[in-house]
Specification:
Elongation Factor Tu (Ef-tu), domain 3, 8% helix, YaeB-like, 2 helices, two-stranded antiparallel ribbon, TrmO-like_N, 6-stranded antiparallel β-barrel
């Protein structure tokens, strides 16, 4: 298989109160009290049509401050080394992030969203609607994450986030 290169241009910018990676929740489930906005560039605003009918959306973005790619990492939730593709660590061969967040409202080209676990100023590549029909799987295996106690996950997932409003 020959190597291919791809080029993408951002469709917008994500705005959050998170400026320091070590003080940013690691997943939206641990960022419930951290709302933010997504600014869609005017050239792409027409694509927001009908999105307001969805309660949740996927934000697909560039992990532009992730650091050098690695194939083995110690994930946030555990101290054991794991393969990068069995984690959600940001230092990936292709630094692409994805978060499912609640869509609160749309005002022009600005999306108001909740549960942001993304650094302020992150370039947005795409938005997709979350669909219960297509995206919800009840009986799943969660690999090594099943070994992590929920209390430990919640504590590690929040990291050193300052309280909301602070």
């Amino acid at each position: 298989m020959r190597e291919q290169r791809f080029s993408f241009c951002p469709i917008g910018i994500i705005h959050s109160r998170h400026h320091i990676a070590g003080q940013t929740p690691i997943q939206p489930v641990y960022a419930a009290d951290f709302p933010g906005t997504v600014e869609i560039f005017p050239a792409f605003a027409e694509g927001l049509r009908d999105l307001d009918g969805y309660s949740h959306i996927y934000l697909i973005y560039v992990l532009d401050r992730a650091g050098e790619a690695r194939l083995k990492v110690k994930p946030f939730l555990q101290d054991a080394e794991r393969g990068i593709f069995a984690t959600r660590a940001p230092c990936r061969p292709n630094p692409i992030g994805m978060s499912i967040v609640p869509l609160e409202r749309i005002e022009g080209n600005i999306l108001h969203v909740g549960a942001l676990d993304i650094l302020d100023g992150t370039p947005l590549l795409d938005i997709k609607p979350y669909s219960r029909r297509f995206d919800c799987f009840v009986d799943t295996r969660n690999g090594w994450q099943d070994e992590v106690r929920e209390d430990d996950a919640r504590l590690r997932g929040r990291r050193d986030c300052p309280p909301a409003g602070g």
